[in-house]
Design a protein that fits this description.
single chain, 289 residues, alpha/beta, Rossmann fold, 5-stranded parallel beta sheet, 9 helices, 12 strands
């Protein structure tokens, strides 16, 4: 898929296009978020659909793996955000936050650096090993005890990541001076109960690690809050834009640390989910035009 990526003045980040003609004050709106806002495997993500519905250009500031800290680190983007008519801020993942064990790659990218030795790993692998602990060689009774200790340590790390996430969202939303819509876009409701038995039950569906309590803490820093909970059209069969035939995506071509291959998109929002998002957002956006 051709995402028509482009850069902006004073920024080296590649944003999804098409590039808009004018950046005059209040003549466009901005969508801030992660890959769900970028629109992976989607010809028309919700920012583009809203652009068509509202007849107003959009800057799509969706960056894969981003959390709130990414946009605080790249403060050159704030001038574009605060020059807009209004801003939609996606509720992003909590696994993109720094903590005592891991450091994210510039606040985005889905890759963590271990503070202990500087090696890189995925968030899934990092938290999986944290839960399992490093003492897998021991017999079951002792491994069970060590596993409980690992869960205790994991709870401390998760609490730290969540606290950093909330604080960074408060900072980001405070820095945004124009009207802002906080946007929950997921297959699940914010209210979920994590389990420390495996990484998937700990994270939950995107946005990973984020629960209702966290959302409630940051909602007051936005002007409006919108929830879109949808799984329409997921999983999405992936096909070539040239031939129309089914294709296989090899994630190792992005970075050797990723090993998955897939023929269906079951993670990122499908085109139908993006349509649901745009329908819910449109009437709220109209209030700020």
């Amino acid at each position: 898929m051709d995402y028509q990526t482009h850069t902006l003045k004073n920024s080296e980040i590649g944003f999804r296009g098409p590039k808009i003609a004018s950046l005059k004050k209040s003549e466009y709106f901005v969508c801030v978020g992660a890959a769900q806002t970028f629109g992976c495997f989607c010809e028309k993500p919700y920012p583009t659909l809203l652009q068509e519905k509202l007849q107003k250009p959009v800057l799509n500031f969706g960056v894969g793996g981003a959390g709130p800290s990414f946009f605080l680190l790249h403060d050159e983007l704030l001038k574009y955000i605060n020059n807009a008519k209004f801003v939609i801020v996606q509720v992003m993942s909590g696994r993109s936050e720094n903590n005592a064990l891991f450091n994210t790659l510039a606040g985005a990218g889905g890759i963590l650096t271990k503070n202990s030795d500087g090696s890189m790993t995925t968030a899934d692998d990092a938290y999986h090993h944290l839960l399992e602990s490093e003492f897998r060689k021991w017999h079951l009774p002792f491994r069970k005890t060590i596993g409980l200790l690992g869960q205790k340590k994991a709870k401390k790390i998760v609490a730290e990541s969540r606290s950093n996430w909330v604080n960074n969202y408060k900072k980001l939303l405070t820095e945004i001076k124009v009207p802002k819509i906080l946007f929950w876009f997921s297959k699940r409701k914010p209210d979920y109960k994590e389990k420390y038995t495996d990484v998937n039950k700990l994270f939950g569906e995107f946005p990973q690690l984020v629960n209702k309590q966290m959302v409630e803490q940051i909602k007051q820093f936005s002007d409006k809050y919108v929830e879109c909970i949808s799984y329409q059209g997921s999983p999405q069969l992936l096909s070539s834009r040239f031939t129309g035939k089914p294709i296989t995506i090899d994630n190792s071509k992005i970075h050797k640390i990723f090993t998955s291959k897939f023929t269906h998109n079951s993670y990122y929002p499908s085109p139908e989910m993006n349509e649901d998002a745009a329908k819910l957002l449109e009437p709220i956006c109209q209030k700020f035009l």
